[in-house]
Design goal:
By secondary structure, the protein is α/β, with parallel strands linked by helices. The protein has two domains: 4-127, 3-Layer(aba) Sandwich (Rossmann fold), CATH 3.40.50.2300; 135-222, Arc Repressor Mutant, subunit A (Orthogonal Bundle). Helix content is 55%, strand content 13%. It contains eleven helices and six strands. The chain has helices at residues 13-24, 38-48, 64-74, 89-98, 110-121, 129-145, 155-164, 168-178, 183-190, 194-207, 213-222, and strands at 4-9, 29-35, 52-55, 79-84, 102-105, 126-127. It has a six-stranded parallel β-sheet with strand order 2-1-3-4-5-6, with helices on both faces. The chain is globular, with a radius of gyration of 18 Å. The two termini are 34 Å apart.
Length: 229
């Protein structure tokens, strides 16, 4: 099986060297490139085409957020995994908005990083459970701040309205995505090809006006398809 090809982006030489050594000691990983800042990351990624770009956020010049935004335009096949010291809501939400497929803090266990890489490589989104709770907290905060005359529909009614625009097959695919299943696994369960699953997933995002895998996960959380414990 082809190894997952990785790129490590961090402005600290020691951190990059340590990450490279650790990742290459793991079966199924290959570090094919490194970069010291966002500008280098964009240029080198376009040349080397890594599967996953492990991206620091705070770097001199072009930071990780801007680099992620540009990469999702210039090299959409490359998935970005944020690996940062920041356990901060602002950084978390901004990286997801920029197009990151995962967010892991440097304080996490090594197993979390490995799990994140494998999850993203299979087309999923990886958010540490403690950080994913912020999605719900932020939504509840917005509800509490909404003026009475513009109060959103109750959650049950809103859920029914949002899900009603999806076909039965799209609902089945969405449920599979919410359960963390890969496209091949969803296809196996539904008796359709992975490419057909991918097309359904794209239509779901278009119908719901979602623009990234992270937004799809957020929708699944808010509609009750994913339960954050």
């Amino acid at each position: 099986m082809k190894p997952i090809q990785l790129m490590v982006v961090d402005d600290h030489d020691i951190v990059r060297a340590g990450l490279r050594s650790f990742l290459e000691s793991q079966s199924g990983f290959e570090v094919i490139a490194e970069a010291r800042n966002g500008e280098e990351a964009i240029s080198i990624a376009l040349q080397t085409h890594p599967d996953i770009i492990i991206m620091d956020i705070t770097m001199p010049g072009v930071d990780g957020m801007e680099a992620t935004r540009r990469l999702k335009t210039l090299y959409p096949a490359g998935q970005v995994l944020a690996l940062t010291v920041h356990q901060d809501k602002q950084y978390f939400f901004e990286m997801l908005a920029a197009g990151a497929a995962g967010y892991v803090t440097k304080q996490s266990a090594a197993e979390d990083l490995i799990a994140a890489i494998h999850s993203i490589a299979q087309g999923h989104v990886y958010l540490q459970p403690a950080l994913a709770r912020w999605l719900l907290e932020d939504y509840r905060r917005l509800l509490s701040q909404t003026p009475p005359e513009t109060t959103p529909l109750p959650m049950d009614a809103e859920r029914e309205r949002d899900l009603a625009i999806l076909s039965q097959r799209e609902l089945q695919v969405l449920e599979g995505v919410a359960q963390g299943l890969s496209n091949p696994r969803i296809g196996e369960q539904l008796g359709i090809s992975p490419k057909t699953v991918a097309r359904h997933r794209e239509r779901i995002m278009n119908k719901l006006n979602l623009h990234s895998s992270a937004e799809l996960v957020k929708f699944a959380i808010l509609t009750g398809l994913i339960e954050i414990r």
